[in-house]
Amino acid sequence: MTKDYPKDYRDTVFLPRTDFAMKANLPAREPAQLERWAAEAQYGRLREAARGRERFILHDGPPYANG
Questions:
Q1: Which of 22, 38, 46, 67 could, after both became Cys, cross-link 62 (CB 3.0–4.6 A)?
Q2: Tens digit of each residue's pLDDT (9 = 90 or more) over 6-28
């Protein structure tokens, strides 16, 4: 019979350590981000920067002929 050992792989996997939070917490942070974008008029600035450029059209659809 073989002896069952607990499987602890922590020391066998290389996981980098960073200062970033492990959880983005988007639902809590998104309203503040949207307010900041509105205050800085981000969308208007992007539209102004694109003025006069050729119009870009994205043809989105299924990647196969019979779909």
A1: 67
A2: 777 777 888 788 887 777 888 89
Gap between the Cα atoms of 45 and 56, Å rounded: 17
**Tokens read off for 67:** 């779909």
Kindly report the pTM of this predicted structure: 0.46
For range 30-54, the mean pLDDT: 94
Residue 18: which residues within 8 A CB-CB, separation 6 or more? none
CA 30, 35, 39, 45: dihedral to nearest 10 degrees?
40
Q: The tokens 């006069």 sit on which residue?
A: 52
Strand, helix or coil at 61?
coil
